[in-house]
Amino acid sequence: MAMKVTGGFILDENGEQVAKDVYIxxxxxxxxxxEGDIREQLxxxxxxxxxxxxxxxxxxxxxxxxKKETIETGTKxxxxxxxxxxxxxxxxxxxxxxxEQLDLLQARISETAVVRVLPYASITTRQLGKExxxxxxxxxxxxxxxxDDGVGIQEAGMMLAAMKEAAALNMAVVAHCEDNSLIxxxxxxxxxxxxxxxxxxxxxxxxxxxxxxxxLLAEAAGxxxxxxxxxxxxxxxxxxxxxxxxxxxxxxxxxxHLLLCEDDISGKDPNxxxxxxxxxxxxxxxxxxxxxxxxIDFIATDHAPHTAEEKSASLERAPFGIVGLETxxxxxxxxxxxxxxxxxxxxxDWLTVKPAQTFNLPYGTLQVGAAADLxxxxxxxxxxxxxxxFLSKGKxxxxxxxxxxxxxxxxxxxxxxxxxxxxxxxx
Length: 427
Prior knowledge:
- This protein has helices spanning 71-81, 99-112, 135-140, 156-168, 192-197, 205-221, 233-244, 255-259, 281-292, 308-311, 328-337, 344-351, 353-358; strands at 2-11, 17-25, 28-30, 38-43, 48-51, 53-58, 83-88, 116-119, 146-147, 172-175, 188-189, 201-202, 224-227, 249-253, 298-299, 374-384, 403-413, 416-420.
- It is of the alpha/beta class.
- The strands form five sheets. Strands 9-10-13-14-15 form a five-stranded parallel β-sheet. The chain has a four-stranded mixed β-sheet with strand order 3-2-1-4, with no helix packed on it. Strands 5-16-17-18 form a four-stranded antiparallel β-sheet.
- Helix 4 packs across helix 6 (205-221) and helix 6 (205-221) packs parallel to helix 7 (233-244).
- The chain is globular and about 65 Å long.
């Protein structure tokens, strides 16, 4: 079926806005389609036509955590946020640590996902850090990459062996960096907020020391090593130095670590509790600088839904994590692009082509022949973040009540419209 998206504009290589109609046929972007062949036409007058967003760090919770989120609700939330491809973390129950479990997960994704889902496989069996999984079998079963996200690999020898296995298969090792001996039972960053509220704090070195170890292991193994949710200035410095040394390391940062620091925590609200925690203002500034100078490669949400009951516990007892798929672009556009810290082109690249290039994915582009993954955005539209409207089961966000501009209006995956607001009409 052929589709035409008409009246919108794209960003050229220089970031200039260029009027453009986009033609789609058989799920691909094409140069042109005869008017008589067009079966669907979307009116995108005045809207930015962006490549569909790519998020390589999402928790969909299914199987085992369906009270928090399902593949269906999580991918509907992704579609509302403009994401057309997401990679699902393996901290589910059961863990996708063997080909059979990965096959079952792939089948469930095929049945219920509304955007493209790339499943991670775990590095170790049940994510216990004791025994490596069968990387070759998991790759053949469709694993996107390998990670034990949620916990760090504590033993250097285990991590080196994992990196060697991944390198032999030309796959990435994606790391949650946290030295368990330094966590100290902390719920927040080891800083002035923790001290003022009598809480145990997680020090910055807890993350940075793992990254320092791992970049040297990656160099020894010749592996692609990707760092999840960087949060400290020491981590940024270590990654920058590793890149200068020619080590194959890439990194991501979350919207909440770019936007918030420990100064912003409201009372003892558990919606400000995430892992890694919100750090000092100097760390937040270092993350912004690291993104701008290329030390950090792109932005990922670390969408982590929990139930209202779980998040109603005390700050000390509530689980770590917040949702992010439905708020990422509006927050970043409003608070970084509109003030001039980032250009719109930079933000779009960090949400599309940069994560795609990092993992050799054929997405995040509007080139002819590419998958027809599009996000239509009204840069002038304004909304107030209201968790009750989220399509995600998770309502746990510290951004409730924040006003935002730049609202996704429609999302198209492989030529199929999977999300559309009222203002988008079929002509």
